[in-house]
Amino acid sequence: MISPVTSAVPAQTTAAANAAAASFAALVSAIDYLPDADIESIRKAYRFADQAHLGQLRKNGDPYITHPIAVAIQCAEWKLDAQALMAALMHDAMEDCGITKAELVELFGSPVAELVDGLTKLEKLEFDTREQNQAESFRKMLLAMARDVRVILIKLADRTHNMRTMGDMPRSKWERISRETLEIYAPIAHRLGLNITFRELQDLAFKHIYPWRSAVLGKAVHRSRSRRKDLLSKVKNDVQNALAEQRLSPRVHGREKTLYSIYKKMDDKHLTFAQVTDMYGFRIIFENMFECYTAMGVLHQLYKPLPGKFKDYIALPKVNGYQSIHTTLIGPFGTNVEFQLRTTSMDVVAESGVAAHWLYKAAEPGSDAAQRLGSQWLQSLLDIQHETKDAAEFWDHVKIDLFPDAIYVFTPKSKILSMPRGATVVDFAYAIHSNIGNRTVSANINGEQVPLSTEIKNGDVIEVITCSTPKPNPAWLSFVRTGRARSKIRHFLKSMAHDESLALGEKMLTQALRLEGIADMPPADTVAHGLWEKLLRFTGNRNVDELLADIGMGKRIASMVAKKLAALLSEQGVKADVVLISQARYSPQKGAISQGVVTLDGGEGGSVQFARCCHPIPGDKIVGYLGRGEGLVVHTDDCQIGKKLLYKDRERFLEVEWSEEPVRSFEVALQVTVTDGKGVLARVASTLASAGADITHVNMSDERAGHATDLRFAISVQDLGHLSDVLRALERTPSVLRAQRSRQSKDRAHL
Ligand code: MN
User: What is the 655 CA–ligand 1 centroid distance (Å)?
Assistant: First the structure.
């Protein structure tokens, strides 16, 4: 037995094909403003989309392709170009049919593929209209994300068609989609000056959020209109006659407020329907601007103008380019009637807004349409469009006009953040939370790893990767743009430096105390309270932490503090341990005044610096110099600069030694003499890499001896043993004549 489904297929397919063909025919007749070649491209896009959506149905049972065609027809009404129409036809193909961007680039070129991709991304955005700010951000975001204004126009066409066919959707979805339309899409349409679409979206949304209110209001308006029919036709006649006396014969259209705007007025101002008085109006379209002003004079003679209702948007256009003269007159029987007076070109801008510039583009060359497009704003956009010929750049200018200083970016969870223009990834991380900022180690933008200094752009999805321990890099201060990030980084670095100095100071004081025969630092709290108070009076510090940090930073000498502390302890009857003293004072290092040995493992942070003249590494004999306010600076014991300091400032030296297990690698300077030749640097670099030494800096000497060149590297190594392995590997590398560690400070100057 043949199943009903199988037998239904051929019939359905034929019907579907017919429906699709019929709606495509409607599109073809709407795009007669385009050249034949463009129409052929659009046909190709249609066939592609039709194939992609084959078998899919709209909720009402129509073949799916009727929807993209309807969207394209709307775009054709705005006279958009062929690329936009092709994108409109394929706008759902990527999302619903698994078509890739690469395929679209291949078949239709990159601009069309970018448009479709932009639309697909917008489709994926989700948001919550319950949060007003979020809605506002989203609106801006939406505008910003579409780097090409055509994306927004196609999106508005898409939304308009979906709203028109909302009746086919389950009722449970009406409210959410309608609110989104009301809060996001209608305002964008308004902002772009697409007034017909703006009004249509508002009324459709209103109808689906409040079906009953909308129906009641609609009936009331209808009744009122037929009641006022005679009155309005009398007004229209009077006006036309009065204008004719001045040889003016404009087009006069009746106009009504939208149901939604009447409803909103009643709701906002608590009015009854009868109290809404500006429901009726006329739009009068003239040849030129002078006629508009002449007509205004005529109208004000004919009926009394309502005070405070006159607005000259011709002299002072609205920001979206809208121009018109508005006036409300008190008509027969005291009925208020609103008039809008404008020229044909102003009317085009008023109804189609930004899209009007495509209208202009499509106009005959040599027509004076350009001159007649009144608004300065739109005109300046047209100029930009002419100069740049680049939709993306054009839209950047539009955006700057709409939203001057802010960009809008996403977290991976689609939360929207507004950032100042020029902000970097690090600014973004701190904007989320200082705890995120401090722990940032790397970042992805739109799924690709980027340097932390990367400037973020509108619409970027930014993922910040953090580590468990906070460690902001002082170098970030050179590129962050926001005050918040700057101050948070500074604050953290300051407290980190303080903590490190404090730890070092404690270590140094403990060791200095051993030299005085005191095994442990007395606890800084309860028991020895009086003791520390006396010591702090002596040093002038506010508290023990500050004293220890001062010692760590070299502002105070540990041995002097230890001596004072030992003296105070002996006043309290604590005796020095003689054995401890002799152990502690035994030192093979006669140069430095013995304060006990400070052990270093490289994890000391900012409170210990390894001198850049001699680059000490574990295994080197080292000395520590307690610089004034700069903490402990470690030199190799044969360093010339270190020796000079020792001669001048002996009491600031203290004994240091390497820990058995350093926690990181250390930088060391190398001089590698090579023969000239192609690829030598690469060979040396690969030798270093395979020896496990990271290059942190490289420089090539200008001095040449014969055919040899000196390469200077800074590399990081574990210790002296690692360094000798590296040097041996280098010596074995072809083209390398000699490799050695460089110690003189002048080497550093070259690096
Ligand atoms: Mn769609």
Answer: 75
Give yes or no: residues 415 and 528 share one domain: no
Burial class (CB in 10 A: 0-12, 13-18, 19+), 311: middle
**Same domain, residue pair 341 and 431:** no
By three-state DSSP, how is residue 397 classified? helix
Domain boundary among 452, 481, 510: 481
CA distance linking residue 50 with residue 56, whole number of Å: 10
Going from the Cα of 14 to the center of ligand 1, the distance in angstroms, rounded, reads 23
Helix axes 720-731, 680-690, angle to 10 degrees: 140
Q: Does 207 share its domain with 229?
A: no
Q: State residue 32 phi and psi, 5-degree precision.
A: -70, -5
Distance (angstroms) between ligand 1 centre and the Cα of 65 equals 10
- The answer to whether position 368 is within a domain reads no
CA of 91 to the centre of ligand 1 (A): 6
180: annotated active-site residue? no
CB atoms within 10 A of CB 580: 16
Residue 685: CATH number of its domain: 3.30.70.260
Mean pLDDT by 10 residues, the chain (751 residues): 37 68 86 90 94 86 91 89 92 84 92 88 60 51 60 90 92 88 80 81 94 91 81 88 90 83 85 76 90 91 86 77 86 85 84 56 36 35 44 48 60 76 91 91 88 85 88 83 83 81 84 81 68 82 86 78 84 72 54 57 76 89 78 86 82 80 87 81 83 80 69 88 92 88 56 38
From the candidates 38, 77, 96, 657, which is the catalytic residue?
Answer: 96
- Predicted confidence at residue 39, as pLDDT, reads 93
**Cα of 89 from ligand 1 centre, angstroms:** 9
What pLDDT score was predicted for residue 85? 94
**Domain assignment of residue 43, yes or no:** yes
Tell whether 504 and 461 lie within a shared domain: no
**What's the confidence (pLDDT) of residue 367?**
34
383 is catalytic: no
Domain end among 629, 658, 687: 658
Whether residues 117 and 186 fall in one domain? yes
Q: How far apart are CA 498 and CA 545, in angstroms?
A: 9
Rounded alpha-carbon distances, angstroms, from residue 351 to 78, 88, 383, 397: 10, 21, 21, 22
Q: Which domain holds residue 472?
A: 405-481
Ligand 1 centroid, distance to 95 Cα (angstroms): 10
Asked if the structure places residue 3 within a domain, the reply is: no
Q: What is the spatial distance between Cα 511 and Cα 599, in angstroms, rounded to a whole number?
A: 10
Of these residues, 38, 77, 81, 95, which one is catalytic? Answer: 95
